Amino acid sequence: MTVDALTDVTGLRVGHATRTGDGWLTGTTVVLAPEGGATAAVDVRGGGPGTKETDALDPRNVVQRAEAVVLTGGSAYGLDSASGVMAWLEERGRGVRVGPQPSHVVPVVPAACVFDLGRGGDFRARPDAALGRAAVEAAAASGIGAPVPEGSVGAGTGAVAGVMKGGIGSASVVLDSGITVAALVVANAAGSVTDPETGVLYGELFQGRVTYPPERVHEAARARLAESAAHNAPPPLNTTLAVVATDADLSKAQAQKLAGTAHDGIARAVRPVHLLHDGDTVFALATGARRLEAGQPLALNEILAAGADMVTRAIVRAVRAAGPVQTRGGSWPSYSQLYGSS
Length: 342
Known about the structure:
By secondary structure, this protein is of the alpha+beta class. The protein is 25% helix and 25% strand.
């Protein structure tokens, strides 16, 4: 039984830690790999990324596997949350062995951040190592194949998509080959996720069935968004983050290709994308449970195509699941509040 989420890739667990109120509107999300890690890669397309340990994932470098991936709010300050995840892993002897004792390990924990500083009202309210530890503990405590909470949770707590509320979303598919491909996304884009002429989510245009909102609903939504945009400070730095994963047995180079093509999924759902003030970053994880068909060099293609599709679906789900937020730092209506279930 699948749950249409990243955790459909057997062995991957997802945990959120969320802080709201008293100036807080931020959080951290951890994707925890099976013990021993997963083959990992990354592709960064945004012009203003905030990342940690991404160089270690280059196929030319020595590290082959990552124990966890951290997605966090708090801009570059929030990358400190990865330290809490590393400490939790070290206590369990999980990481690259670097000494004679089993405890002599260095956990490989790549991380990326979104900009949400000040959105809760306090610029200094941002994730730290304690919040990262809470997120990895939540991941470890979740069951195999557990549903992934979506919307304004974890790293999506303070996320904004254009001028409306963003958040966390996830999606998965099982291919005819039996291979699972899934994605988890933090939608925090500077670009818009909706067609300005109709109000339809861009990502839904690639999913077939599209229900266009009534014109009067769209006009009311446009007026409400314009009001919020005038009230809020101009959006400074934004980022869409994603983890795309599969149970296929991929090399680091193949995983890097998967991370790269998955960016197409962002480009379908957000316009414009990959700007200088975006930090758009996609991580890829491969658990290796299923081998690609022998003698078929193009067998990777269906995984690449599915990865982009799942990222698009995850962005749609993130925006639809997000709730409206009003704080001292600003006001962001949600898509569901503006357009209902249309």
